[in-house]
Amino acid sequence: MTLQASSSSVKATTQNKGGLASISLSAGLMAAVLAYPLLLSSYQMDVARDALIFALLALSLDFLWGKAGVLSFGQAAFFGMGAYAVAIVGPMVPNDNGALAGMVTGIGLAVLVSGIVGYFLIYGGVRGAYLTIVTLALTLIARNVATSWASVTGGEAGLIGAPPPGLSIGGWSVTASDSVSLYLVVAIVLSVTLTALWAASRGRLGRVLTAIQDDEAKARALGYDTSGYLLAVFVLSSGLAAIAGGLYASAAGYVAPDLVGLLLSTQAIVHVAFGGRGTLIGPVLATVLVIHVQQEVSSFSYALWPLLLGAFFIAMVFLFPKGLLPLISDLVHRLVPRRDRGGTA
Amino acid sequence: MYLEAALNIATMVSILLLVALGLAIVFGLMNILNMAHGELVTIGAFTASLVQVHSGSFWLGVVAAIIVGALVGWVLERGLIRYLYDRPMGVILATWGVSLIIQQGLLLLFGPSPQIVYTPIEGSITLFGNPYPRYRLVLIAAAVLTIAATAIVMNRTRFGLDLRTVIQNREVAELVGIDSRRIFMFALVGASALAALAGALVAPLIKVVPTMGADYLAPSFFVVIVGGAGSLMGVVAGSAFIGGLRTLLDYQVPTTLSQALVLIAAVVIVRFRPRGLLPA
After folding, report:
1. What is the pLDDT of residues B30-54, one digit of tens each?
2. Alpha carbon distance A92, A97 (integer Å)
């Protein structure tokens, strides 16, 4: 689909890790993952759609954590801003532009908050663990706002009536209200974002970010405004998280404070860590896989899932710090030597 | 009114001090953040509740909480953190996993409803014409005593000297023969015991539920950020600032807003004093 088309156009310039074969393999895999749910029932398609939305959230985190090295627990806060903006602003806007207006509001809010907090912290020289803690606080506060500012957010009950994605210009209008079109909207947003981030990471931006992760002092000495780069990535990642939240509210038709909690941020971290941070496509595939497993486990025992999550964190740190999917692909590469591969993943 | 506000601030600051002190020292020593620190507060409160229910004595529960907290800290250090000294991000992730497991484990064992804790000292005392609960005064006194004891350990003992040396410069400390990992182990055990003590002391005033740790994690990290890592005075300054501001704001605005305002204040301070108000 979209991904395949654009990946073939960038093929000529590839020389980073992963050659032609692994890029077409990723693109093919991605296309298969995206296309497969279209064959399913509309209920299963809705489930798959939510998985893709969380994949977008994981992708937003991977750009920040994997590419810039900033671990954030704040993704849920920005996701919530997007979701609540669509549910609050959306119904006020006439025609079919409600979701779009809400989305723009949500992105604006996320960019504003992350811009202000990020400016003070990042230019204040705050890095690493400190930054992580502040993002954690952002999520705690967002959750509190969602539950206690009941007159606006609906409190514990949340809000219903978030409008579906649509567009109306003059007399012409289009709305995505059935399962298939909702799924397609989400799949398209995800593929475009994935392709854009992937393309951006291959260029100069990606290399500067790698340099910052390796040794920020050196990168700064070479004349790069490292704080500026980090701030830009932080703001961009927050905006993407808000888009994911907006899509969620718009597609589901409601929001609830559960969406904004630390658990959502934690799951995004798991998805990224599982898929291999910095690989962009890994977290997307991992999200789809993990959410599938999560449903199986939750239907078996609801209480088991957080325990498994916790155990997963510990196992990950010790057993597969690079992620589980990269580990598997490494093993496959080792077991099946292939002449045409450009490098190891 | 003013006296009551001052005493409420003192209560809040005492609790924050106990929770954040260990966190600040551990962070100052090894740049390691223990995300399960909040769960040690929870464990302290649960231990106090359980022991009180079974033995009838709250103070026995407090002692038990200190022991259990130290034990959990020791297991955490020996079983997990010691393998991750050179991977701060790994510590964050692994201890976050521990935090999830403890929370969910307590939830499975005890359920979501609050545990029963009876206030050990009933009644109130009249200070300058204002009644104030006796227990809170005891809590403040206990916190002050604990901090004083910690200050003595840090400034007057051989262990404290080694500890401060490692905080100032780990390499030099190793060169002069200080086993920094051993120091760190004791620091983490002490930090965990202090957090559990805080949990036990605060138990009669709050709802003792499995998720209570999260309420202490973020504020105590703010104390460390604002005050500065690795210094006792920094923790005192940070606790006074965060606790004082929170309590004062709670009188004026809803809790949510006061939380957000405290975060903003902390973020602004960090911009101008990146190493905290009183760093080591």
Report:
1. 778 888 999 999 999 999 999 998 9
2. 10
Using the beta-carbon criterion (under 8 Å), do B93 and A317 form an inter-chain contact?
yes
Burial (CB < 10 A; 0-12, 13-18, 19+), residue A213, is middle
- What is the CA B59 to chain-centroid distance, rounded? 19
Angle between helical axes of B255-272 and A128-148 (0-180°, round to 10) = 160
Residue of A nearest to B97 (CA): A310
Lowest model confidence (mean pLDDT) among A201-210, B132-141, B147-156, B261-270: B261-270
Q: Which residues pair with B133 in a beta bridge?
A: B124
Interatomic CA distance for residues A19 and B30, integer angstroms: 41
* Amino acid B1: pLDDT: 66
Which parts of chain A sit beneath pLDDT 50?
1-17, 341-345
- ipTM at complex level: 0.81
A311, A316, A318: residue with CB nearest B101: A311
Q: For chain A, what are the domain ranges?
A: 2-335
Chain A residues closer than 8 Å to B104 by CB: 303, 306-307, 310
First to last CA, chain B: 36
When CB atoms are compared, the residue of A140, A309, A317 closest to B100 is: A309
Quick one: CA dihedral B176, B179, B181, B184, positive or negative? negative
Looking at residue B215, its pLDDT comes to: 82
Question: Is A141 in CB contact (< 8 Å) with chain B?
Answer: yes
| The 3-state secondary structure of A154-208, one letter per residue | CHHHCEECCCCCEEEECCEEEECCCHHHHHHHHHHHHHHHHHHHHHHHHCHHHHH
3-class secondary structure, A99: helix
Give the Cα separation of B33 and A128 in Å (integer): 10
Q: Where are the domains of chain B?
A: 2-113+129-210
- Tell me the pLDDT tens digit for each residue of A254-310: 888 887 888 899 889 989 988 888 888 889 988 988 888 888 887 777 778 888 888
Query: A2-335 — its CATH code?
Result: 1.10.3470
Distance CA B266, CA A239 (A): 23
Cross-chain Cβ contact A132/B107 below 8 Å: no
